[in-house]
Write a structure and sequence with these properties.
The chain is globular. The protein folds into 2 domains: about 180 residues, Up-down Bundle (Growth Hormone, Chain: A), CATH 1.20.1250; about 170 residues, Growth Hormone, Chain: A (Up-down Bundle), CATH 1.20.1250.20. By secondary structure, the chain is mainly α.
Amino acid sequence: MIPRLPPERRGLIVAALGSSLTVSWASSYYIPAVLAGPMAEALGLSPVWVFGAFSMAMVVSAMVGPWAGARIDGFGGRGVLMLSNLVFAAGLGLLAAATTPWVLFAGWAVIGLGMGIGLYEAGFATLAGIYGKDARGPITGITLIAGFASTVGWPLSGLMMATWGWREACLCWALIHLFLALPLNACLPRGTKPITVPGTVPEDGPPPSRLALWLLAFVFAASWFNSTAMAAHLPGLLQAAGASTAVAIAAGALIGPAQVVARLLEFGLLRRFHPLVSTRVAAAAHPVAAVALVTVGGPAAYAFALLHGAGNGILTIAKGTLPLALFGAAGYGRRIGWLNAPARILQAAAPLVFGAALTAWGVSAIWLTAGTGLGAMIALLILKRG
């Protein structure tokens, strides 16, 4: 059975897990934007090599995600998340010590292992093990906190690099894992008993259909591809549509607030509805924004950023809440590990693929992400609540 904790502990668990995940995101996914250039210069490489190592890390995370999810299903997430902090610290230590490309790639491979066992999927599975079908609220809560990872991570990485250097910045993040994130994860419940019993039908319902799993995997892959492509190329896209550099940067700054507002909406008004409803609306946001950008041009830059950011904010939550609502808590961790594996691989390819499209087609490259977003919306319409 799944243990039920007193309601008064829910806020503490969400705060601890959300804060530790903020550190994990800030020290992995968000450090290349600030540190890739100095890393490459110190090793005599092009920054492309550093981003290539980062892409490799995301592929590694896709490979270990299902194992981590199955482990959390059986024993709870506390131990796995604490292990991720040690792994992150080791990988960051390798980066700090890197004097050759081989050590650089080894460091990012270790960080990829940490990403596979210590980002949102592991956090979502941990909460599903603690709260079962009631995990929707806590899942939204941790995304509200960790949604500020770039807001915290980029300035902090930049400050550490300017003050001490990029190697010292990596070491500082390693120490933050050991002395902040690790103790926060240690505060989580010790574990859950296995929530699946071999040879029996799970209490939350029958196993999901293969079609439903493939449809949901496609939805997650499409949304991750679009999110990463926009994160890497949004200013260039908006300028190709006719926006000035200042407008493009200002519009890009609206994406973070739009994500937070959308998640607050999901936490409040939209929680009355099935997650499938809010996810369908969110999937439609990017295609609608694309039509506005192509039709109106530069003046639609702000509307594009707001719509894309809001949709992306809810889709991030849906990666945790939708599998829970559709398939139940039994086997949840392993399931979302498999569901998100294709997304991680496409995420690794997104900056290169969309960058090439933007160079070749200009603003018309937006039809690439609009098409994947439309495909995700159609897949969600096919999915049923049962």
